[in-house]
Amino acid sequence: MLERLNQAMEYIERHLGQSVDVAEAARVAATSEYHLRRMFSALAGMPLSEYVRRRRLTLAGAEVLAGRDTLLEIAVRHGYGSGEAFARAFRAMHGIGPGEARRTAATLSSQSRMTFRLTIEGGSDMRYRVVDKPAFTVVGPKARVPLVHAGPNQAIIDFVRAIPRADTERLEKLSEHEPRGVLAVCDDLDPSRAEGTELDYYQGVVTSAPAPEGAATLSVPAGTWAVFATSGPVPETIQYLWRDVFTEWFPSNPYRGRPGPEILRTRPSADGAEADAELWLPVEREQD
Known about the structure:
Layout: H1 2-14, H2 22-28, H3 33-44, H4 48-66, H5 71-77, H6 83-94, H7 98-104, E1 128-133, E2 136-140, E3 142-146, H8 154-161, H9 165-173, E4 183-187, E5 198-206, E6 216-220, E7 223-233, H10 236-252, E8 255-257, E9 262-268, E10 274-285
Antiparallel strand pairs: 1-7, 2-5, 2-6, 3-5, 4-5, 4-9, 7-10, 8-10, 9-10
Helix pairs in contact: 1-2, 2-3, 3-10, 4-6, 4-7, 5-6
């Protein structure tokens, strides 16, 4: 998988001066566009679109300092429709406008080319199982919240705290199928997975019962799920599990992610400092 991902990175590098076709990059990587974006974000720590933007502005910065072409020629060559749009993007990355950078021979930022390599750290096992599950329905309160990669998500905390305890207890009694209990369900995430982009968050259960008053309904089609188990301090252990699944498990196993909700089942300790957790991710087998 990593070798194919690096071939996709080479394709992107060759097409920085054109329109980068992410679907074609995914074909080079022998995977889906959805999974390529997820894999890249987890491995690189930034969305693929942000990496492409930073690489283009790195090359543009070198051309600005070289002084051979006009700023407008450089802007157009790197995909900007106007000098103003180029100047805004240039300043956002380099902290200085292109005209001033050329006049003063300023120090600019640089986004290095990325390649991915497998390293062995710790050699610990990852507990998982693969489940083929028929279509099911999640019901429960729903909110639109921002994506947070590290640390507590205050929007989710505030949303869950505002749900009356009696409503949560009634909801839990409706749970009928795996994963059982009240679940944290994330759906409709932005493909970039960028920090601060929004997603649908459900505090719900898997059930065939009608949704209670005020609750939302999420219909989930039949498919295959990879289920990962972990235990430890929250939220760090769960966030590390999400990271490790995409940086370690997917590159080592014949599966890729597919569109669908991400489901987290947690059982907190008495003091709430630790938890046992199961992470359900929609997957499909890679094509041979």
